[in-house]
Write a structure and sequence with these properties.
The complex is a heterodimer of chains A (273) and B (227). Chain A is an alpha+beta fold and 273 residues long. In chain A, 55% of the residues lie in helices and 16% in strands. In chain A, helix 1 runs antiparallel to helix 2 and helix 2 (76-107) runs parallel beside helix 5. In chain B, strand 8 (143-146) and strand 9 (149-151) form a beta hairpin. Classes of the chains: A alpha+beta (273), B alpha/beta (227).
């Protein structure tokens, strides 16, 4: 009889040890995954820090050289010209810092969101109208395919910033004679807004990274002084509105930015005939 | 005309004072909320510029107190970071306009002048007919004529022109136009507003003389007859 008890005790011990081992492994694994996440976060924040330092050092270096050279010069016209360049550089740096602060605030959830019923169809038509002349000036065709009466529960200013950033991007990167299409549909409680083009597109391996701070497709080519923060802002604002954004290849041959947002809870009102 | 600036950053306040004095205004300074409140109560100012973050007493509570006492002097609120909430809170506390730091002095000056003009012209009934030189716009029929000749404008061009006419002779910045005409409180990264302006200019200036719509470098736009 005592043999059975010993066996049972042994079995229990083994099982207990196994469970203990399994628990320890699990804890270790979760610790490991936590650690690797922390490492990733630290790395990405370190990289962000490096990028900020780089993005601010470049104009500072230019400023330094410019001011130093001008100080050796007695000509007041030259002083004036330098001061004007200094002002432009400062404005560039200020806009990087403002964008970073806004981004930090949006991602930390510290940005108040004024939600109200917004007729997204109307808002998108307005944005198209705002960007129409600029697109034309750049010889781009800007088209809208917007379903009627799409209602969302959202912050009008954040929505406008999302789509204005995406159109700014398209205007900067799509070559002349290109096509940019802004389309919007609502189905099954979800609103999908797409900004797509027939431009050069985004390589598959860059489609997630493009939303990270300071990511530029071609770092040597930075038209209009884009700092690589616009898409990060789009993502942060979309998330603030319980939505998201992703990049894909467009049927048109270029890039497609797809923004998803929850439809207004009250349901989509029928368009008035 | 005397303005009161309540701003705790002494260097920034002094620069602002210098800029405003060079533009022809007299300026009083206060560096904390209590002192600002006292000076504002003493009166004699045509406009207050109030920073939100102030020592001793914050700017919004200063403004609220002044409004509760029935003081209607126009107030321009300054805030450190563009929180959406700050704008709403600022206007709710009785502010007439709101700016985010860091701001360009040209932007601040344009807004100060717009506020002063608004407070001078309020009182009469709403204007339905605006005139500047030989340019006339009728807000009811939404028609525009120059030298008696009818000009066709898109609805948004009409609103842009209305805004410029209301501030004729004063610089209106891109940000102000975007706020007043489109109701967007941020700056697009491309020159969207400028392109709308250049279309408007084509229509109102191209076949007429003298040109009325001018670009002010580094600031914005102004309707004026240049000497």
């Amino acid at each position: 009889m005592p043999g059975i008890w010993i066996m049972a005790a042994l079995l229990l011990g083994v099982a207990g040890a196994a469970i203990g081992f399994w628990l320890a492994r699990r804890r270790q694994r979760s610790l490991e995954s936590l650690r690797s996440r922390l490492v990733a976060v630290t790395q990405s924040s370190r990289q962000t820090g490096d990028n900020i330092a780089h993005d601010l050092r470049t104009p500072l270096t230019r400023l330094h050289a410019d001011v130093e050279t001008t100080l050796r010069n007695e000509d007041s016209e030259a002083h004036r010209a330098t001061l004007e360049r200094v002002l432009t550089e400062i404005q560039g740096m200020q806009s990087i810092i403002s964008a970073l602060l806004t981004l930090g605030q949006a991602e930390a959830g510290g940005m108040p969101v004024k939600k109200m019923a917004v007729n997204l169809s109307l808002l998108l038509e307005e944005i198209l109208e705002l960007y129409g002349p600029s697109a034309e000036e750049r010889q781009l065709r800007l088209q809208g395919r917007i379903a009627l009466q799409i209602m969302v529960e959202a912050d009008r200013q954040l929505l406008a910033r999302i789509f204005s950033n995406l159109l700014d991007n398209a205007l900067k990167y799509v070559p002349a004679d290109g096509l940019v299409v802004l389309s919007a549909t609502a189905k099954g409680g979800e609103v999908v807004v797409t900004v797509e083009d027939d431009g050069p597109g985004i390589p598959a391996e860059m489609r997630d990274r493009i939303f990270e701070r300071f990511t530029r497709l071609d770092p040597s080519r930075t038209p209009s002084g884009g700092a690589g923060l616009g898409l990060s802002l789009v993502k942060a604002f979309a998330k603030l509105l319980q939505g998201d954004v992703r990049a894909e290849a467009s049927r048109l041959g270029g890039a497609a930015f797809i923004v998803t947002l929850p439809a207004a809870a009250a349901g989509v009102p029928r368009p008035v005939p | 005309m005397k303005l009161l600036i309540i701003e705790d950053d002494v260097a920034a306040a002094n620069l602002l004072k210098r800029g405003l004095e060079e533009s022809g205004y007299a300026v009083d300074l206060a560096h904390d909320g209590e002192q600002g409140l006292k000076q504002a109560r003493a009166g004699g100012h045509s406009l207050w510029v109030i920073d939100i973050m102030l020592p001793v007493r914050d700017g919004l509570s200063v403004l609220k107190a002044l409004r509760d006492e029935g003081k209607g002097t126009p107030a321009l609120i300054l805030s450190a970071l563009g929180k959406v909430d700050d704008r709403v809170e600022g206007l709710r506390a009785g502010g007439d306009d709101y700016m985010v730091k860091p701001y360009a002095f040209a932007e601040l000056l344009a807004r100060v002048e717009a506020l002063l003009r608004r407070s001078r012209s309020s009182g009469g009934g709403p204007d339905t007919l605006l005139e500047f030189a030989d340019l006339k716009i009728d807000l009811l029929s939404r028609t525009v004529t120059r030298a008696g000749q009818k000009i066709d404008l898109q609805p948004r061009e009409f609103s842009l022109l209305e805004c410029l006419m209301r501030h004729a002779g004063q610089v209106v910045t891109r940000t102000m136009l975007l706020e007043i005409v489109w109701e967007y409180f941020f700056d697009p990264q491309t020159n969207v507003v400028d392109v709308h302006i250049s279309r408007l200019r084509q229509k109102i200036d191209k076949n007429f003389s003298p040109p009325l719509l001018h670009t002010v470098r580094g600031s914005g736009y102004v309707l004026r007859v240049e000497a």
